[in-house]
Structure formats: C-alpha cells, structure tokens
Specification:
Elements lengths: L1 E7 L3 H12 L3 E8 L6 H14 L7 E3 L26 H6 L18 H10 L5 E5 L4 H9 L7 E7 L14 H5 L1 H8 L5 E4 L1 H4 L3 E3 H8 L4 H18 L9 E3 L1 H10 L4 E11 L10 E4 L11 E7 L1 H12 L5
Parallel strand pairs: 1-2, 1-4, 2-3, 4-5, 5-6, 6-11
Antiparallel strand pairs: 7-8, 9-10, 9-11
Helix pairs in contact: 1-2, 1-10, 1-11, 4-5, 5-7, 9-10
Bound molecules: beta-D-ribofuranose and calcium ion.
Length: 327
C-alpha cells in the first residue's frame, strides 16, 4: 500500500477526496492535515473529522494546520484578511467554494500536534517515502519545507489539486488554492520533489451531474448518500453561475487528485513542463506560469501538468470506489 498524507480545506469536494482515499485499497492514509482555505481552519478541521466519523474511520489522525496564508493577506491590494471573514462569501460563492458540510456533528478530536510539526516529524522519521495529496492552499507543506527542507527527500510524490492554464477561478489567471497562498505554492515548486498538478483545466472536464448523483445514491450507503448530496448541491451552485449556463454538472476538483494517484491515465495530455508560481502581487499573483516557449533554452521541466482528463474514467472510478463503503 502506498502511504499518503492528505492536506485538505474541507470543503465539499475535499470531503469526496477524503472518502475516496480512505476507501481505496491501494492507499494507506496515515494522517490528514487541515488548512485555511474554503473556510477558516477551525471549520475545515471540523468538517474533516465529520467525514472520518461518517466513514467510521476515527482512528485516522487529523492535524490542524495554518490559520493564515504565509504572505498573501499582507500584500497591497489583497484584503488584510481572508474574504469570508469579512462577509463577502455568500450565496453561490459559498456553495461553490465549500459550505459547512451537511454531515452530522462529531465528537472526534484533532491531535494536539499542529500540521506543520506533524509533516516535519512524519517525513523526517519515515521508513519509506510518503506521498502527499494537497487539495487546499499549500501553506502547511510550504511551511514544513521552510522548517526542514530535507523532508523533500522522503516525499515520494506530491499530487496537487490546484493551478490552471486556460481555466481559472480566483483571478483572470489564478486558481483558488494557489491564489490563497502563492508563496507556499512556489516553495513547493522549488522543492525538487516529483510534482503533478491536477489543475482546473482537468477538473472542469470531470464534472459530475445530477444523473451521476442518482446513480451513486442507489449504492445505498451513508457515504454514497453524502457524496450524492454534495454533487447535487454543487450542481445547483454551478448552474447559478452566469458563465456556466451550459454546464450540466459540477466539478469535484479534489476527488480527481486522488483518482489520478490511483490511475494516472485518468489525466490526459499531461505535459512535462517548467512551472513557477507568480508571487509578485500584481494582476498575475498566484498564476501557475508554464514555460511552453518553443525554444530549446526554456527552463527545464519541474512538474507534470494535466491539460485534460477523462470524465468517463473518473466517473466510473468514483462509483467503483464508493461501492467499497460498508456504511
Ligand atoms: C479548489 O478550491 C477549493 O474551493 C476546492 O476545494 C478546490 O480544492 C478549486 O479551485
Ligand atoms: Ca479543496
């Protein structure tokens, strides 16, 4: 089994990613880190614990991570605080960007150790390499790499949900997870680790529809019900979005990162490319800048970036994995 640590800002699509990772027989989830992102870290931690409880997997340790991005909220032009704390994230935005989940409350508690300290210790002491699946802002991993850069040697691979080439959602050229903490993302890009980006270009092609939700509901478990409800709610959110009138479903971004680890062929047209994250606090802050120059002197590839993905494959993977749930 491949040992993995999830880093999440749960978040509706994060919840589906966690479920798939816990159910997939090929993966051993040794820990889950929470981070500020879709909501403040207090809520993303609580949401994560609720998901574990729903699946009866309370033994998986959850470590609360960073409350704020490294630098971005200090930048001129950025809000001094994160938007939803100023009451800006309402209606459709809140639906799309991770409401508080409608999953029952839990008595499960997070660990005392914080996520950054956990990442440093777990990776320093690892007997075999560990794979990271960050599906929120990269703050915890960026901080851990700053504290102990040598942990990169014990990272097998980092499968990131984030970034965008032609598809973006938080500024004209940036995707939410990277936009929240561009500096952390750039630290990860400079770590020398094996990195795959599962960007919006790929996740938007893997939308799930209300028909898919109905099929999932037929599986008849609490887990399947929760996933179906998430898809239905997200579909409503996305169909209200003026620019997406033609869109018949909703992407479940983070779930695709887990599927990509299980079967890399769910990602298509994966480019080996050089990527840096813009941190300049201008219009392009948080852009994943790909060096696709038709020049022999362009920068050497430091990651794989998925331009497309296979919706049919994704859909059937999600359903097949959910069949493994026993509650
Ligand atoms: C990403 O942003 C968050 O809202 C989602 O959970 C996903 O990780 C998509 O841009
Ligand atoms: Ca997320």
């Amino acid at each position: 089994k491949r040992k993995v640590i999830l880093d999440v800002d749960t978040g509706a699509d994060d919840a589906v990613a966690i479920m798939l990772a816990l159910l997939a027989p090929e993966l051993e989830v040794i820990g889950i880190c929470s981070v500020n992102g879709n909501r403040e870290v207090r809520l993303t931690t609580d949401n994560t614990l609720r998901v574990l409880d729903l699946l009866g997997r309370g033994e998986v340790p959850v470590y609360r991570g960073c409350e704020y991005p490294m630098v971005s909220t200090l930048k001129p032009g950025r809000k001094p605080n994160i938007p939803w704390r100023e009451g800006m994230m309402t209606g459709v935005e809140a639906l799309v960007h991770g409401d508080h989940l409608e999953i029952p409350e839990t008595d499960l508690k997070e660990q005392e150790e914080c996520a950054v300290s956990y990442l440093v210790h777990a990776l320093k002491n690892a007997k075999e390499k560990i794979t990271l699946i960050p599906v929120g802002p990269l703050t915890n991993i960026g901080m851990a790499l700053r504290v102990a850069p040598e942990i990169a040697e014990n990272i097998e691979e980092i499968m990131i949900m984030g970034g965008g080439f032609l598809t973006n959602n938080s500024s004209a050229v940036s995707e939410y997870n990277v936009w929240v903490d561009p500096e952390a993302a750039e630290i990860v890009m400079q770590s020398g680790c094996k990195i795959t980006w599962v960007p919006l270009d790929a996740t938007h092609e893997c939308y799930l529809t209300t028909e898919d939700a109905a099929e999932i509901r037929k599986l008849g478990t609490k887990t399947a019900d929760a996933v179906a409800a998430i898809i239905e709610k997200r579909t409503k959110g996305y169909s209200n979005d003026v620019d997406m009138k033609e869109y018949s479903g909703a992407p479940v971004h983070d779930a695709l990162a887990v599927c990509a680890l299980l079967d890399p062929t769910v990602l298509t047209e994966v480019e080996e490319v050089n990527c840096h994250v813009d941190i300049a606090a201008g219009y392009a802050d948080g852009q994943t800048c790909l060096d696709r120059r038709m020049r022999t002197n362009k920068e050497a590839p430091n990651c794989r970036f998925a331009m497309h993905a296979d919706r049919e494959k994704f859909r059937s993977m999600v359903i097949d994995i959910l069949k493994l749930a026993d509650r």
